[in-house]
Amino acid sequence: MKLGVKQVLRIAAVSVAAFSRLFVCPNLWASSVNTSFPVSVTVNSTCALNVADMNFGTLATVKGTETASSYVSVVCTKGSTIHLSFTPVFSVANTTRNSTMTSAAGGKINFTMTLQGYFGILNGGQTGFTYINGQLAATPGAVTGFYQSLETLYINY
Length: 157
Hints:
Shape: rod-shaped
CATH topology: Immunoglobulin-like
Distance between the termini: 82 Å
């Protein structure tokens, strides 16, 4: 038996109407069950530390009055509590360091470094900065040459 277009459309309309009642009729589902589930995220504190070179320049003699500064930039997760120091464990005593630069010829020049800011909470933003101020010790008769020391700054957070 071949159906006409009108009959096919009528059957389709009745099928759609019957099918849609499954989703609208509240009597088809007698009850429902629900549960709650947690959704969470943890934001870890992380920091990056950048320190500019400290360069005392070129000198004829080392009188002990020569100073230089190094810019320190700290970028951390907002709200991080930070402590800067010259040792891995923070202590106010570790914010000043006495050290020695050496030359290839075996010369030595002592110097002192002091952190100008060494702790804080980065609440207002993610970036903080401070300076390390250095001063050379008087070194009469310093041997000619290029002097260098590799120093380490730590950030504890």
